[in-house]
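Supplementary Text 2. Reproducibility record for the structural model of the 195-residue chain.

All settings were left at their defaults, and a single model was retained for analysis rather than an ensemble. We include the record here because the model underlies the residue-level annotations in Supplementary Table 4.
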Amino acid sequence: MKRKEKRLLQAVALGLTALVFLPNVGLWALYRERQLESGPEGAEAAAAVRAGVAQGQQRRQRKDIYFGDGQRRKDWHDKEAIRKDAERVGNGEQGKPYPITDAERVDQAYRENGFNIFISDKIALNRSLPDIRHPNCNNKLYLEKLPNTSIIIPFHNEGWSSLLRTVHSVLNRSPPELVAEIVLVDDFSDRGHCT
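Retained model, structure tokens:
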């Protein structure tokens, strides 16, 4: 009986500790970010915004903001590409549904892929997508020097158009200097177009 009571007390203590400290992790990150903004560089950026300095000048000023350890921060967002994507119209653009007629419904293709491959083949491989991130993410700065990465995309009997659309999306929405390679891994597909 004592063992069960001890474990119950440990679980309660762990739960209380999580309730006390986990919210503080998020609050600490917010506090640290505010402290950085209230430093000399952050005060200059705030003054520039109040003074109505042009957006290009603000971006240059924000690039000079450093993390607490002296590492430079950078705005990795490709604002021009995001703007161009937002202006695109057409079938499937902006993630909107493709208008389908009764003649275009192909049940067999849907059963094989989990989506209508017939319609997927009609949507552009370089499809635009809406920016669904929180608005604060648009102003987020990240380390200027980041390691590059390999992007691994496993697939099994994937529809060819959706697979190519995934590759296009990675290429279009990732900073080129951060992508070392894109590796497509065929997980024992048995369809002709995948092998």
